[in-house]
Inverse folding.
């Protein structure tokens, strides 16, 4: 029996990698910054002596790929032979996530909707009616909270059922205008019989003249001669609008907002963090504080480590001399290798051990996107974007803290 | 009924999209995250330097630079 494969897809930052880690026991890196999963990650989901290969795909907002990572996801979903897909969605913005989920279901009808972050949604008074979601879409659905383990057991059972074909998937297709449907009728049967595509997305992509998909298709199957279509003006807009409005329609019955202004606390915090008067000063104070802690906090451990290594070095030297080690070799080992190693560890380890956890805390509370938002204007004038501020800060903090110790460099 | 672009609205104001003038990849991406005609958008915050601005659309908050938001045309909603 060949191994069954299930792909994990979804928008960035919905917790795909957290779900993946929990199900496979692996330790892929997660964080609240988009773009962490680059390339695919594979793991094995094991339960009751059965095994499934799970593939964690990079997050993307759409199958119309805009970057190398998004192309990885699109190509994997469209061209790899898999037994099903799980689309992980953020319960706090289900509508936007559903747009992508509907696109995926159009590639692989065997799709399971996994609504994550139910705990966050509950806190904000957002209620997701999973049964209604499943009925409206025709797809199996489950609500979980991966961060605290809620629902993961049931999810793994559903994934096994999906892979073995036991889970009923009866995707209710998105309705397109007549002009699109006519072209689909011509194109879809050919793509299905000649190339084995089970969903209608490849046909839609060709109708839309989606260059990314077409190049990927032609790389694998040769030139698309006889597309059988004449180009429809604004095809992408027609198709995309239908998907977006369908997602809206589904959410009208599946999502309810119990608190009228559920994001008021976040809005108030953000108005200070990104505000005209306090935004930048808070950022500078916070960065300065972290830098100061890194440098001053690392001073003492650094000296202790340095002294300890020095003592061990002297002790090692004495041992080597007492057993008659050649002086040149002793010098290479002690003055060379040992001393350099101890300087590097004593000087570099303490600041990194302080800085990285602090940086991770900022990442986990969601402050870093606010920094990118605040600084984007300056960075875009330099031809890049606000996200680069974070890479810069990370590097500068480490470099300056090391220069200040004046022992390395 | 005056035609505004999304970058003209201030914090707290609401906007209904009527037309997207963006082309190519930007157009596709904007549509795929929900900026389609007849969608209601609210400007929820502005960066300290005035650009970019954050807009609430279909339950999500998305930051757009002025020159990207300029491509989204529509009307202010009271």
């Amino acid at each position: 029996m060949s191994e069954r494969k299930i792909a994990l897809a979804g928008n960035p930052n919905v917790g795909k990698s957290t779900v993946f880690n929990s199900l496979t026991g692996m330790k892929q890196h997660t964080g609240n910054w988009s773009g962490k999963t680059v390339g695919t990650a594979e793991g094995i989901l094991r339960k009751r002596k059965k095994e499934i290969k799970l593939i964690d795909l990079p997050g993307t907002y759409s199958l119309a790929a805009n970057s190398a990572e998004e192309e990885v996801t699109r190509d994997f979903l469209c061209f790899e032979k898999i037994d099903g897909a799980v689309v992980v969605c953020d319960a706090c913005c289900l509508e936007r996530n559903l747009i992508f989920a509907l696109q995926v279901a159009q590639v692989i009808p065997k799709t399971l909707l996994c609504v994550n972050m139910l705990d966050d949604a509950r806190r904000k008074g957002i209620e997701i009616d999973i049964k209604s979601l499943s009925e409206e879409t025709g797809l199996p659905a489950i609500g979980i909270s991966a961060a605290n383990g809620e629902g993961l057991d049931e999810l793994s059972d559903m994934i096994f059922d999906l892979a073995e074909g036991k889970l009923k998937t009866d995707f209710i297709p998105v309705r397109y205008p007549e002009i699109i449907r006519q072209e689909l009728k011509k194109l879809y049967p050919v793509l299905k019989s000649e190339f084995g595509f089970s969903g209608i997305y490849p046909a839609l992509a060709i109708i839309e003249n989606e260059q990314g998909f077409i190049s990927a298709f032609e790389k694998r199957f040769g030139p698309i001669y006889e597309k059988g279509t004449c180009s429809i003006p604004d095809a992408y807009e027609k198709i995309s609008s239908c998907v977006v409005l369908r997602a809206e329609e589904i959410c009208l019955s599946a999502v309810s907002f119990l608190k009228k202004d559920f994001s008021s606390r976040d809005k108030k915090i953000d108005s200070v963090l990104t505000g005209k008067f306090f935004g930048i000063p808070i950022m500078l104070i916070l960065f300065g504080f972290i830098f100061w802690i890194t440098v001053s906090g690392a001073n003492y451990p650094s000296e202790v480590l340095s002294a300890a290594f020095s003592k061990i070095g002297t002790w090692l030297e004495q041992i080597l001399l007492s057993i008659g080690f050649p002086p040149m070799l002793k010098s290479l080992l002690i003055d060379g290798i040992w001393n350099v190693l101890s300087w590097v560890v004593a000087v570099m380890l303490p600041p990194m051990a302080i800085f990285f956890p602090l940086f991770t805390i900022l990442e986990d509370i969601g402050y870093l996107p606010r920094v990118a938002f605040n600084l984007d204007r300056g960075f875009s004038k330099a031809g890049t974007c606000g996200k680069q501020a974070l890479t810069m800060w990370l590097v500068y903090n480490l470099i300056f803290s090391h220069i200040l110790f004046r022992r390395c460099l | 009924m005056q035609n505004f672009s999304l970058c003209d609205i201030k914090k707290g104001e609401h906007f209904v999209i009527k037309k997207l003038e963006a082309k190519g990849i930007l157009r596709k991406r904007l549509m795929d995250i929900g900026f389609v005609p007849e969608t209601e958008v609210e400007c929820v915050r502005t960066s300290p330097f005035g650009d970019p601005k954050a807009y609430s659309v279909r339950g999500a908050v998305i930051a757009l630079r002025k020159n990207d938001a300029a491509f989204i045309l529509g009307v202010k909603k009271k």
Observations:
- The two ends of chain B are 12 Å apart (CA to CA).
- The mean pLDDT of chain B is 89.
- The CA atoms of residues 20 and 27 of chain B lie 7 Å apart.
